[in-house]
Amino acid sequence: MRSSFSRTISAGAIWDVSEITLLLPNDAPREPATHEPGWRELSAGLRFVFGSPLLIAAMLLDLLAVLLGGATYLIPVLADRLGVSSIGY
Question: Number of structural domains, the chain?
Fold first, then answer.
């Protein structure tokens, strides 16, 4: 178990980092787009996503984690509906 002192130091470090990031200069304002996003931009984005294997792998990993995490969360609910004990799921 961590001591109160180390928690205070950690909280202080996080506070300092957040203050530093707030003091950084903002980016210059962008000019507004001159056209509406359309099918060309959508297809370019899809080509980019499906053209990078690392991005596809990260998205697939996230998708599986969400799906399996949701199923694990629902196991006790399904156990109650089936009339079995939800303790030993």
Answer: 1
